[in-house]
Amino acid sequence: MAKLEGNYVEETDPPADNTFEIGLVMAGAISAGAYEAGVLDYLFEALDAWDAAKAKVKGTAEENLVPQHKVIIKVVTAASAGSMSAAVMAVAARYHFNHIGSRDIGVKGYTKVLPSERARIDEAGRHNPFFKAWVQDISMDKLLTTRDLDQPNSVLQSLLDSTALLEITKDCLAFEGKGVAHREYLGNPTRFIFAIGNLRGIPYFLRLSGQQGVGLGMSLHRDYRSFTVSYSMGGKAQSIKADDIALDWSSDSGKLWEIFGITAVASGAFPVGLAPRPMTRNSDDYQYRFVVIPASKTSPSRAVQLHPNMKRMGVPHFHSFLVDGGTMNNEPIDLARQELAGLTGRNERDGDKANRAVLMIDPFPDTEAQGTDALAGMSPALVTVVGNLIGAWKNQARFAPEDLALAADEDVFSRFLISPSRGDAEPRGPSLACGALGGFSGFLSRDYRQHDYLLGRRNAQKFLSDVFTLPVLNPLFNDLHADQKSKGGKWVRVDEKGGVQVPIIPLMDELLPGALSAGMTSGRMEELSEWPAGVFEIESIESAIKGRVDKIVSHAIENSSMGWFRRLSAKALGMILRGFIYDKVITVIKDGLADGELMPKRSSPVNTTEEGKWFGERNAEL
Fold first, then answer.
1. Residue 470 — left, alpha, or beta (φ > 0 → left; ψ -120 to 50 → alpha)?
2. Angle, CA of 122, 455 and 265, to the nearest 5°
3. Are the C-beta atoms of residues 441 and 31 closer than 8 Å to each other?
């Protein structure tokens, strides 16, 4: 294991015997963080139940009837709203808390049930940190307030008011459950890495000529910030890498937890929609960035340390505003893989030998048909080109050809994905209620978020039972009784090639329904929630939209540098534009919800496609 500066390594040591390490990746989600919340809640419930079952039979004749291998969540990487989900997880993991599933809150939604039932759901929900943050606390009416612009000398930073996000984050960090839990499946410490979009950029300089100080300057904006959280009883904060912020549960970490929360919010600061967040950090943190040089015929791959241009960095502190990390690294698989295997290492992909894996929760996985509804690059119109260019920058920054290559290989057991599914073999409609309006629809309705939360739990149950598996010959299962890993066993799954596989995280009997165990158990099934079509009424937020639009327009005019006459003219124009903007917003919301099958579609004229308009006979000669 070659050690580099900052305690980074080219290759990590393999996990201990009988241990499987996980790098959890929380992809960008916007309002579909509710889906991630459901997945995480079920994951904790399954791991806790398994730990309890192992402890119960430890040292008895029945010990080999329960899988005794260990699972360790070593690192959690996240982007955008996934960072908010990871932040909730970081605190929730310290405590015992009630889990909430379809058995507890039903599948009828929230709006359509009786007030007494809503009160019961509310009471149950406030004791679950994932449900409370992502289903109960966040809503569009809180994002349409004007508190951000009401303060003296305020600056317009975003279309929505982000004040509530800071309050929700503060509340999440203050969560205390039903006593401190000791979860052996958490790394001690566990590393949390949040992807962030650094607007200033980390400056680098490449000297290209003999003349001193002349060359090529460049900036890296795809940034991250890392933390470690200690979960041992009475354990003190300890970092893993030199640029980590180490956290524990003592009063000494109070200010550091605030940085942790602010960074999570910054990672989800969707540009224009939500406010960017300021960051101040030690300039030396950026000394620990590395690039991997591919192997050649004469030398193996190696990690090379990058040193920023300190003349432009500023010391000892680096200052910048941060935006959504998902704009540049929406699925930070690379950060998780490098923490598991090292900068140049790789996780074993052979199922018989696999001992580490990246597990990604992605509410918005792309499909093979992605982009066919609205192709970019089909019009030369200036506004369209600018929009396409922004999209191209974002997509190019996210493009990872090595991930495409690995994902195409069905025999790779080092990467797994949980994504939304309502059970259709070939989905014909949306699975997520929070997926409409570019992922913002979940903020409009509690029913949308509650549906997706329950879907996350349902998908997690199916995933752990049938997908997150390894071949039975993997050493993890050596000590498991033969009957438990043979065809016909309640946990055994047979793949398409007839191979026998066993779950990495087995569901205990109370969580394993007969439908997933060939009738051998009678655990509870996470039921599919009713699709929440027709529950949202646009009238419920009309006044809030008007108030927000009015405030933005008036604030922009009042804080401009225009003279009195131009300001007066702008106010008159603003009175006209307010109505247009408001009508446009309402239309976009209605059309977006209709496209997401959450309300009836409106009739609209048929439009000629841009492709047919610009790429017809006129360009036949090309």
1. beta
2. 70
3. yes
* Nearest one of 119, 135, 194, 125 to 168, comparing CA atoms: 135
Q: What is the pLDDT of residue 398?
A: 58
Question: How far is it, in rounded angstroms, from Cα 594 to Cα 474?
Answer: 48
Instruction: Check: CB of residue 314 under 8 Å from CB of residue 260.
Output: no
Q: Binning pLDDT at 50, 70 and 90, where does residue 395 land?
A: low
Asked whether 250 and 231 are in contact (CB, 8 A), the reply is no
Q: Is 33 within 8 Å of 433 (Cβ atoms)?
A: no
Q: Report which of 439, 454, 458, 467 is spatially closest to residue 330, judged by C-alpha positions.
A: 439
Residues 505/46, Cβ–Cβ less than 8 Å? yes
Alpha carbon separation from 153 to 176, 557, 558, 559 (Å, rounded): 37, 14, 11, 9
Q: Which helix (H) or strand (E) holds 225?
A: strand 215-229
Helix (H) or strand (E) holding 319: strand 317-324
Give me the helices (H) in 314-466, please: 333-341, 382-398, 401-407, 446-466
H-run or E-run covering 81: helix 81-92
Give backbone dihedrals phi and psi of 421, rounded to 5 degrees, phi first.
-155, 130
Q: How many Cα atoms occupy the beta-carbon half-sphere of 392 within 13 Å?
A: 9
What mean pLDDT comes out for the span 327-331? 89
**Distance (Å, whole) CA 326 – CA 196:** 7
What letter represents residue 309's amino acid? N
How, if at all, do strands 356-361 and 415-418 pair? parallel
What's the chain's length in residues?
622
- Whether 418 and 37 have beta carbons less than 8 Å apart is answered as no
Query: Is 89 exposed, middle or buried, given 0-12, 13-18 or 19+ CB atoms closer than 10 A?
Result: buried
pLDDT band, very low/low/confident/very high, at 426 (cuts 50, 70, 90): low
361 phi and psi, to 5 degrees? -105, 110
pLDDT band with cut points at 50, 70 and 90 for residue 495: confident
- Which residues lie across from 193 on neighbouring strands? 77, 226
In the sheet that holds 469-471, the strands lie side by side as 469-471, 500-503, 493-494
Structure-block tokens of residue 583: 């009508």
Per the structure block, which two tokens stand in for 538?
Answer: 């646009």
Of 102, 97, 6, nearest in space to 450 by CA: 102
Share of the chain above pLDDT 90, in %: 71
Closest CA to 14 of 344, 343, 340: 340
> Residue 619: what are its φ and ψ, rounded to 5°?
-110, 20
Phi and psi for 316 in degrees, rounded to 5?
-85, -5
Q: How many Cα atoms are found within 13 Å in the side-chain-facing hemisphere of 500?
A: 15
In whole angstroms, what separates CA 340 from the centre of its chain?
A: 19
Sign of CA dihedral 163, 282, 26, 438: positive
User: Closest by alpha carbon to 324, among 456, 440, 436, 444?
Assistant: 440
84/264 Cα distance (integer angstroms): 5
**Tokens found for residue 123:** 């009471």
Supply the pTM of this predicted model.
0.92
| Token representation of residue 344 | 């140049």
> Both tokens of residue 506?
């087995």
Closest CA to 361 of 7, 20, 81: 81
Residue 510 has pLDDT above 50, yes or no: yes
Q: Name residue 518's amino acid.
A: A
**Beta pairing, strands 70-78 & 19-26:** parallel
Which residues lie closer than 8 Å to 379 by C-beta, 6 or more apart? 385, 610, 613, 614
Residue 523 has pLDDT above 80, yes or no: yes
